[in-house]
Design goal:
Length: 368
């Protein structure tokens, strides 16, 4: 009797072991995900593949779903969605890949790989689509902005992208930005650049540079024109020159908008033009200009007052100078040397020679 009980117990134990092993085998034959779906970051416009690795798929089917769109994209090897950019492939073993060509921003979001077991099994991965910055012209300042000197102005630069772009302002030619009239900085952050009580030195090109870590960064060039009425300076108001020589007179002007500038001979109240007698030149540097008038071979009629005039839509300025006659310098250094040599030869003492030189130095120019 004891032997039969022992045999029964052994049989039951063996049966339990077999059932357990069979259950383990069966569970191994059920579909399982062998690897997680990776989270992928991809720039817009590129191609991307999302793999779903399934072991023991058997007769079950794999499906891809875009959760954000609430759309079934593909089942097994068949693409359900009417989106030619999406395709499905199988490597012949365990990997079922969803391919997206030319990724768009709307493709971002959660993708689910699903197996139609009972109950269903699934796993998800996230597709992050990054977009390089793009400056929105309609929401930014125009390429050229004008403001009167002494007023305030704000320059705006708006950019889109993913991640959200950051804006940095700089000036061209390594010039510094004047902030609140109190300090100068090489760069300023933010979508809006506020300039207070602008001056003519603030005039020039400003660059708004948008970047978000996704190349390439982009920039917009905004030219700031500061308008003011002309100012004028005359370096030399009296200029002496001998008959028959050439003489040049000049004026230095500052104005914006760009002025109309000209020369006049005050004695005849006539405007002067370039020709055989006169040569006019203007050297411009931004809102600054250097006006030059050269009068060739001075005659008695050329002596007198000259006027430089500069005008723009905001006002005008003028400056006067006078050209007067001076005698030609006497070129007789030989006679002076001869005088000194003769004095030494005649035995004049040092004291007399010193007095002679001293009186020569004090003699008014031109020497005769």
């Amino acid at each position: 009797m004891d032997h039969r009980v022992t045999s029964t117990i052994a049989f039951v134990a063996a049966a339990v072991t077999i059932v357990s092993q069979m259950s383990s085998v069966l569970s191994m034959l059920e579909p399982q995900f062998a690897e997680p779906i990776p989270n992928v970051t991809i720039p817009v416009g590129r191609d991307v593949s999302l793999p779903c690795v399934v072991s023991n798929l058997g007769n079950y089917k794999v499906a891809w779903i875009h959760i954000d769109r609430k759309m079934i994209l593909a089942v097994h090897k068949h693409v359900i969605a009417r989106m030619p950019r999406f395709t499905m492939s199988h490597d012949g073993q365990k990997t079922w890949s969803l391919h997206i060509n030319g990724v768009r921003p709307s493709d971002k979001g959660v993708y689910m790989c699903q197996v139609n077991t009972d109950p269903m099994i699934s796993q998800i991965g996230y597709l992050r689509v990054v977009v390089p910055p793009n400056i929105v012209d309609d929401e930014s300042s125009a390429s050229t902005v004008a403001v009167r000197e002494g007023l305030n102005i704000s320059l705006t630069c708006k950019a889109k992208g993913n991640p959200e772009p950051k804006i940095v302002w700089k000036r061209e030619n390594a010039l510094k930005i004047t902030v609140d009239r109190r300090k100068k900085v090489e760069k300023q952050h933010g979508n809006v650049l506020n300039l207070t009580r602008v001056s003519r030195s603030d005039m020039g090109s400003y660059l708004c540079i948008a970047s978000n870590g996704v190349p390439p960064s982009v920039s917009k060039r905004i030219v700031l024109d500061v308008e003011f009425s002309p100012t004028l300076a005359v370096p030399n108001q009296l200029v002496g020159a001998p008959l028959g020589t050439d003489v040049t007179i000049d004026c230095q002007t500052e104005a914006y908008p760009r002025p109309i500038s000209f020369w006049m001979f005050h004695e005849s109240r006539t405007m002067i033009f370039s020709g055989s007698k006169h040569h006019l030149a203007v050297n411009e540097d931004g809102y600054k200009a250097h006006m030059l008038l050269t009068i060739r071979s001075l005659s008695p009629e050329d002596y007198g007052s000259y006027k430089c005039v500069t005008k723009n839509s905001l006002g005008e300025a003028e400056g006067s100078m006078r050209i007067y006659e001076i005698p030609r310098p006497s070129q007789n250094p030989k006679s002076t040397l001869e005088l000194l040599n003769r004095a030494t030869h005649n035995g004049l003492n040092k004291e007399y020679l010193f007095l002679l030189l001293f009186s020569y130095i004090l003699t008014p120019w031109p020497f005769t």
